[in-house]
Design brief:
This protein has about 270 residues and is mainly alpha-helical. The chain has a domain of about 100 residues: Cytochrome C3 (Alpha-Beta Complex), CATH 3.90.10. About 25% of the residues lie in helices and about 5% in strands. The protein contains 11 helices and 4 strands. A two-stranded antiparallel sheet has the order 1-2. The two termini are about 25 Å apart. The N terminus is likely disordered. Bound molecules: heme C (6 copies).
């Protein structure tokens, strides 16, 4: 298995501690692409290899096209999130946060719903005989050649390897919060929640900064479907459920920085 040498490598680092710093550095770069996080928990959760950075957050929509003459539709998050926040699509335009879960049809798009809210020949290319193939590519990698547009963005370790929090803060991008209301301003929410572990033995406290989410998302994207605050106390987030796509895992496995980046949520973890 591909992760096997990486495991040995981590063990080596533990045994030798910092004696051979250069070999430790070599391990970090070797293991990054294997999705190993470099914490004491590497043996607990094994994550499968991430897609190449240019394809992280890319999806193929195939709910209807699997039985049509048109190939599936490529949609890339990094192409779109430079210009629009998640809120625009996942709140205003009602796209589900799950591939193939929205009832998109070609007829609705032509009427101006879903993709058609922008792909109308005004905001972005419209639907005509010369554009079918731009969406119906049938390939997950169809925007690879344009990924170099983001080469100067601040870097992250995993996923698309872009630190979107910093890109936004530095003003490298100014994604629209609303397609319909130019005056829309999200409600500020500065308090950072500290999510305490169920078992107090290990320092796993996770942080949840509302503000860094509201910069992108609507309250209704999370409440109550993903996080029901009525159920506070009864609701337990565990890594197992996050890894299986619940709670934080709705976004942090597929589009936002992935779970492999442990310390962005667990600042004290070692
Ligand atoms: C802006 C992107 C986009 C463009 C451009 C586009 N489509 Fe689609 N099309 C979609 C999406 C998204 C779906 C839903 C895919 C699914 O569920 O499999 C779809 C579905 C379809 C379907 C499946 C059946 C149905 O009624 O929905 C057909 C057929 C189709 N498109 C044909 C075309 C043709 C022909 C063109 C060019 C004239 C075209 N599309 C251009 C995005 C696009
Ligand atoms: C331009 C529109 C658009 C924007 C902006 C957008 N999304 Fe999406 N997103 C989609 C579409 C379309 C789908 C697929 C829906 C379907 O197939 O029913 C999707 C799917 C998803 C999924 C499911 C992925 C999977 O692998 O199944 C998640 C999670 C998600 N989006 C999160 C986000 C987050 C977080 C943001 C902001 C950082 C965001 N999206 C921004 C359009 C968008
Ligand atoms: C909120 C507006 C908006 C929505 C909704 C939207 N798009 Fe786009 N899309 C854009 C814009 C703007 C661009 C041009 C980006 C650029 O110039 O880099 C674009 C570019 C694209 C491209 C070209 C990517 C490339 O590599 O050149 C594809 C393909 C695409 N969109 C597909 C879709 C599909 C499929 C949907 C619906 C599932 C969709 N878009 C929904 C605004 C939107
Ligand atoms: C997107 C944020 C996020 C990321 C990334 C993340 N976690 Fe967690 N983790 C949480 C939350 C939320 C909890 C539940 C609250 C708590 O225990 O602090 C949690 C709980 C835990 C726990 C407590 C026991 C358990 O089973 O839940 C451990 C251990 C843990 N995480 C380790 C990790 C490791 C190792 C990584 C990297 C591989 C990681 N986490 C990545 C959010 C995250
Ligand atoms: C990315 C998802 C997400 C978004 C977006 C979001 N929240 Fe939350 N919210 C959470 C999580 C996670 C918690 C902690 C839940 C728990 O402890 O059970 C929380 C807790 C809360 C609480 C309880 C606060 C406390 O101190 O325990 C309130 C009130 C709240 N959110 C309001 C909002 C409002 C208002 C918005 C929009 C401005 C919003 N949330 C947007 C995820 C989100
Ligand atoms: C609905 C989607 C969604 C959910 C659910 C979600 N996040 Fe996020 N989160 C994002 C997006 C988008 C960002 C911006 C950064 C990015 O896209 O990589 C972000 C950023 C963060 C950051 C900021 C990291 C930094 O470098 O400043 C932390 C910490 C974080 N999330 C933790 C969590 C935790 C913990 C949970 C679960 C309790 C959670 N998130 C649930 C979408 C989500």
């Amino acid at each position: 298995m591909a992760w096997y040498p990486a495991r040995l490598c981590m063990l080596g680092v533990k045994l030798m501690t910092v004696l051979v710093i250069s070999s430790a550095l070599a391990c970090v770069s070797d293991t990054a692409s294997e999705g190993i996080s470099g914490t004491q928990f590497d043996y607990v959760w094994k994550y499968s290899k991430l897609p190449p950075p240019a394809q992280y957050g890319n999806i193929l929509i195939s709910r209807l096209t699997h039985s049509s003459t048109q190939p599936p539709v490529a949609f890339s998050h990094w192409v779109h999130r430079r210009f629009y926040t998640c809120r625009v699509c996942h709140f205003e335009l009602n796209f589900a946060m799950k591939t193939n879960a929205s009832d998109i049809t070609e007829a609705m798009i032509r009427k101006g719903d879903y993709c058609g809210a922008c792909h109308n020949g005004k905001i972005a290319f419209g639907i005509n005989d010369s554009t079918c193939g731009k969406c119906h590519t049938g390939r997950i990698n169809s925007s690879d050649d344009r990924f170099s547009l983001l080469k100067d963005f601040p870097k992250a370790r995993y996923g698309d390897e872009i630190n979107w929090v910093k890109a936004l803060k530095k003003g490298l991008i100014t994604p629209k919060q609303s397609l319909f209301n130019p005056d829309y301003e999200p409600i500020p929410f500065e308090k950072i929640l500290r999510l305490e572990p169920e078992r107090g033995m290990i320092k796993t406290r996770a942080i949840f900064p509302h503000q860094k989410h509201i910069d992108w998302l609507d309250c209704a994207d999370c409440h109550p479907a993903i996080f029901d605050i009525q159920m506070k106390g009864a609701q337990r987030f565990r890594m197992d459920s996050i890894n299986s796509g619940m709670f934080c895992g709705v976004c942090h496995l597929t589009v936002a920085f992935p779970v492999q980046d442990c310390r962005r949520c667990h600042p004290d973890l070692n």
